[in-house]
Amino acid sequence: MQALLDVILPVFLVIGFGYVAVWRGFFPASGVDALMKFSQHFAIPCLLFSAIANLDLTVSLNPLLLFSFYTGATAGFFLGLFGARFLFNRDWEDSVAIGFCCLFSNSVLLGLAINERAYGPDALAGAYSIIAFHSPFCYGLGITAMEIARNRGQSPLVMARGVARAMFRNVLVLAIIAGFIVNLAGITLPEVLRDGLDLVIRAALPTALFALGGVLIQYKPEGDARVIVMICAVSLLIHPAITWTLGNALAVPAGIFNTGVLTAAMAPGVNGYIFANMYGRARRVAASSVLVATAASLITAWMWLVVLG
Fold this sequence. Notes:
Blueprint: H1 2-23, H2 29-53, H3 63-87, H4 92-103, H5 107-119, H6 125-150, H7 156-169, H8 171-185, H9 191-218, H10 225-249, H11 254-264, H12 270-279, H13 283-308
């Protein structure tokens, strides 16, 4: 439990700094919007590009692990999507944003840190293989679903054009594609460029978390408690349960199986809010869910560690 606190409390401190700074008037709300734009359009794309460009895609790239994890993630997305639509009567665009919160686990900020503390640095190969496909898969699914929702009633050709246009205009997707191109082509970036990227990357997560804290001032979770509970249940319990069940059934090797389940058990990351903010849908739910689910993961992550032994 102490290890979880050591990992999660710094995240809450940065979010809390942002919240208090805006609440007490030390930082303007307009500045929060600017920080979110910086993180969404510059810093996080640099982070995604660098992470994928430098990953060894051949290390423990176990297709059974990926199938187990991403089947659980996809099931979580559709549970969140249809739950929001038919249980809570949200419109389709809001429902897609809510489904994305159920889909996107905080695999880097929380997942890597907690897995390393639980199983040691040598056990992270499975987590890295998940991370290699995490953003491309999640943003691909989320953007496709959102564009279908926004263009419903149009001809299939118009809908396909809308999806393609959104995918290739999205800076996060472009950064991911560029990272794969550099990785697969074996391109070595000049050191000065790598150093510049590193400077921007160091600001990515702290900036996004600080901005998220400021955003929480604007989006109070009034009337959204049941939706937030659903997101927490899907993200923290159902996704890892599906990964655990399939991983056992498919006999995924124990080392990467444990890290796969624990990664699946992570709370929605700040990308859940970034996606909602990108489309201007369900931002209040997304911001609150990141905070509440991260707090709840103190208990649920400990529970999954007990289950995994």
